[in-house]
Structures are given as structure tokens and as C-alpha cells.
Amino acid sequence: MSEYYQKSLIIHERLRGKIEMRSKLPVDNLDDLSTVYTPGVAQPCREIAKNPELVNTLTCRGNSVAVVTDGSAVLGLGNIGPMAALPVMEGKALIFREFAGISAWPICLDTQDTQEIIKTIKYLAPTFGGINLEDISAPRCFEIEDALQDLGIPVFHDDQHGTAIVLLAGLINACRIQDRKVTDLKVVINGAGAAGTAIAGFLRCIGLENDTVCTPVKEIIVCDSKGAISIDRKDLSDEKRRLLSFTNLENRNGTIQEVMEGMDVFIGVSKGSLIQAEDVAKMAKDPIVFALANPEPEIYPEEAYKGGAAVVATGRSDFPNQVNNALVFPGIFKGALDSRAKQITPSMKIGAAYALAYTVVAPTKERILPDPLDKAVVPVIARAVRNIVRKERGEIEDALQVLSSSTS
Q1: Which residues have a catalytic role annotated?
Q2: How confident is the model at residue 159 (pLDDT cuts 50, 70, 90)?
Q3: What is 13-153's CATH topology?
């Protein structure tokens, strides 16, 4: 058992969890009680009944998020169920509070039935200003998120989009170091689950084809455990078949090691110790490697650099360039809640990625992303999201103006 495992277990037991609810004002006498509860509380209730929008200013709803899971895909632990997932959801709620001042509540559902989860979240919606879906296995996570986009509040699956946003920010800065363009990159992704699928769509700007913020990479090939996802494969799920509308357009086949040859970027969201230095050496000159499997990356940085990598990122905090979702989800929800956005749109995600990237003024190969503990990041991303919402409402015309005002 590692030092962090032992320390975490002791803290959880001593504190009996990491979060609690606290009141915002004291109740020291009957006058206080009559104001915060009956009879005084009746008046806010009447006002909300007349104008439901007031719920966001007269209650905690406008600054609250439900962190919802079914425990089916928790970290690298797999399908461990809702109760075992609770420590992770508490941690997520703690980060929301510490970094963005948002009240977040763990909601661990004792069902893995897709329709039951959708129905339950719809029932919960009056209480929360946003829904953060977490650690729900693919492909159910795609269906759940899609079905909730008309809920009237932001619904965001962080395992998909948070990872994709941080990764794009890192990729932008890796290109800044090398004086390259994102649009020239040929990318191979290993892992076709929630994160890999979202990253592929994000890097090809699916849904953003007519947006001036969109900078799609030149080419993407996605691999699963059986190799490249191609039209020749007869074993593909519907989700993997949909990937073929914008990936592997030259229909390459082969293992991940074979497909890596000549590519500019390797992105791993799969399993540890998958590739070696000689595989990186077969990539294009000065390749970029994002080995994000946890706790063991697909290739360790030292090995990737031995193969000729120019920039390496992992999902671990003990190496430089950690791709950590905590850099994104507090800020993107802060911006969405502040602006009363009804959805988190593709443009908002792209804006968040650029805002995150340009918080690093002078990126280097050892620092393409901010430190996950840098609390200056949240306001920058929140401002970018608010500006994108303004653009989508017609208050700002030029998308590039949005990015400029968000990152300055």
C-alpha cells in the first residue's frame, strides 16, 4: 500500500468523509428561527412560485452542482458500485468548493440502468444548477448525457469533456513550443471509451465546423484493444462505427504500434506499459506524447524521451505536465452557473481549452499546463465561458474577440 493510500485512508476515517453542509448564518434566537424557517420562509416560497427563475437567487440552487455516478467506471478501479464510489464523489465536491466556491453534492445511484439514471436525474434537477456526470461507463455515459441536454441546466460528463479540454490546452501549448499548428497534426488515440471518443470528436471540432474558434487536427486514427478502428472491422459497436465518419479516413489497419508510425501525436487513454521507446522513434520528427493511463502510463516520460519525443504529458502528479480534469471542471461550471447557461456547448469547451492554454504565458517542454493547484485558473476559464455564452446569445459577434477578452 503506497504512502498516499495509507494517508488517505487515515484521513477519511478520522474525518468521516471530506465534506459537510454548513449554514450561512447563525440561528441564535427565536427571531432568527422565525426568519430562516417558518413563518418567514413562506415569502421566498411565494415569490418562487410566481417566478421560478428566482429560485437561482433566493436559494442555493444557482450555485450548486450534483456530482452523479452509478459507480460503474471509477478511476482505474472499474465497476465498484455506488457506495465504493462515494469517496471519489466527495473529493470532486471538495474541489468544486475549494477552487470555485460552488456547493456540490455527491449523488451515488444504486442502479446502472440507463433509463432509470436519466429519469432520476430529471427528478433531481429542481434542486441543482448543474449536473456533473462522473465515472459512468461507456457507452451508457453518452446516451445519458445526450438525453439530459434539454434539462434547462448544464449537464457535463467530466470523464469525456474535462479530459478532452485539458488535453487540447496541452496540445496547443506543445505546438506553441515547436512553432507548429494544431491543424497540421496527425494524431493516433489509443482507447475508444468515454475519454478517447470525446477527445477524437473534440480534436476534429465535431459540431463546430462553422465556428471560427474551431482548429481541427489534420487526421485522427482511434485504436481499441484490437487495433485501428477501420471500416474493415466487423466487430464494432455503434459508437465505434460513428467514429469512422471523421476518423481513419484513409482506412489504415494494424496494431497501435503499427499505426503510430509517421504520426505526430500519440494520445493514450487506455492501459499502462503499452508502447516503448522504439514505437515513439517510428513516429514523425519531434512527436508529442500524452500517456494518460493511471496509475501506470502507456509509456513513462523517460522512455518516451529516449524514443525522441519532444513533449510528454501524463495523468500523474509526480511527473511534469499532468493532464488533470481539476484544471477544468470548476471553472467551466463556474462560468456556466454565473451566466445561467442552459447547456455546456462545444464552443464553451473550446473557449475553456484556449483560456487554459494561455494561462501559461511562456510554455516549455516541462510546463505546457498550469499547476492543478493554481487557483488563478478558475477565474480565467469562467470568464471565457461567460464570454462564449454572451456570443451565443448575440451579445458578442466575433469568436476571436471572445478568446482575446478571455485570455488577456
Answers
A1: 37, 92
A2: confident
A3: Rossmann fold (3.40.50)
